Amino acid sequence: MTVATNGPATPGAEVAGLGNRLVVAGAALTWRELAEPALPSPGAVLAYGSADALAAARHHATYGTELLLTSAGRVDRAMRDELRGAGFTVTELAAGEARAVAPERERPAEPGRLWLLTSGSTGRPKRVGHTLDSLTTVRGGQPERTWLCPYAPGTYAWWQVVTLSLTQPGQHLVVVDPDELDDWPALAAAHGVDAVSGTPTFWRRTLHRDGAALARVPLRQLTLGGEPVDQAVLDRLREVFPAARISWIYASSEVGASIVVHDGRAGFPVEWLDRATPGRPTLSVDGEELVVTSPHHGAGLDGPVRTGDRVQVVDGRVLITGRLDSDEINVGGSKVSAGLVRDVLSAHPQVAWARVTGRRAPLLGRMVVAEVVPAAGPAPEEAALVRWCADRLPDHAVPRRVRLLPEIPVKETLKSDV
């Protein structure tokens, strides 16, 4: 039965991080001081702001409600109908005010269940079941940190930062809403942020827009994830923050946080493949696809999971180059990895960002083309970028057209669909 749950706490309701500081929507408070709406269970909460999303997350941690949490902008009418058909009360939560629409059918709530919507990059978003425990992958003692969270509410990356703050004392949180994204370095510096998690596009965009402002943030931990991570962005961040720890993480709603690399290099050592360690994910490759067996998997996804991500082994490192269905370009019968061409372009000193795709061409069927956002200073000429690629790639992989863009494109997910 669908019920509002602000009643007695569940047995696991001792939430260790409730005293941690939060900065959200211009207000400074703690987790404990968040407004507490009455939320139904099972419920799908569509949050219109970060404060509402955090309040829903804390409510779940305290009361064990069955919850699907996402930003309102990610859910269209068809998805709302789908959720109601699956027994969820759909609640729009804005400035602490809740407006609920009853489900099409009543069903018992599943205590402790959290649902995530996948990104939908390969089709319609799917629901993946988790618990607060399966989303909490950092368990050991941590040095005190103030984290910046720029992610859209309810995404796997958002939950990774939120669970860290909820479950670990001393892990404070500064949340950036979309209208604050362009000026986040100033906000971070003002509130003592020393740790930031973001996608490679998020970091490239910040470096491109105002690298000097970024350098004024006293960062000790930088984390990248959500997209392929190339050596160029790691090197550029290292130049700005020579003493910080720079990590990249491979994670998804389906298999959880599965790869964590701290050595400053793109990819992971080939020796990690097929290495079975109790309590840790096992990584393998089938053809060119990454396969993960993870203890942090979503509900019903135990055992080997085909990720749909393409990998290549280069100089002893396993590089994740992109999605299988979009990374490969067939040029006259020869395979080209769009991700590897993108990495070559991104390594050019006058390139801040690049996207590589295939375009129809006579005789060859497809040819390689690229879009590039120039770094600060004189923009590179198309011919110079083509020569740069020709010196580093086989002829069939060299872009035949390069178009310059004025700004790095970014979606609500902080990705640019490279």
Automatic annotation (TrEMBL):
<feature type="domain" description="AMP-dependent synthetase/ligase">
    <location>
        <begin position="105"/>
        <end position="282"/>
    </location>
</feature>
<dbReference type="InterPro" id="IPR000873">
    <property type="entry name" value="AMP-dep_synth/lig_dom"/>
</dbReference>
<dbReference type="InterPro" id="IPR045851">
    <property type="entry name" value="AMP-bd_C_sf"/>
</dbReference>
<feature type="domain" description="AMP-binding enzyme C-terminal">
    <location>
        <begin position="343"/>
        <end position="412"/>
    </location>
</feature>
<dbReference type="Pfam" id="PF00501">
    <property type="entry name" value="AMP-binding"/>
</dbReference>
<dbReference type="GO" id="GO:0031956">
    <property type="term" value="F:medium-chain fatty acid-CoA ligase activity"/>
</dbReference>
<keyword id="KW-0436">Ligase</keyword>
<dbReference type="InterPro" id="IPR025110">
    <property type="entry name" value="AMP-bd_C"/>
</dbReference>
<protein>
    <submittedName>
        <fullName>Acyl-CoA synthetase (AMP-forming)/AMP-acid ligase II</fullName>
    </submittedName>
</protein>
<dbReference type="GO" id="GO:0006631">
    <property type="term" value="P:fatty acid metabolic process"/>
</dbReference>
<comment type="similarity">
    <text>Belongs to the ATP-dependent AMP-binding enzyme family.</text>
</comment>
<dbReference type="InterPro" id="IPR042099">
    <property type="entry name" value="ANL_N_sf"/>
</dbReference>
<dbReference type="Pfam" id="PF13193">
    <property type="entry name" value="AMP-binding_C"/>
</dbReference>
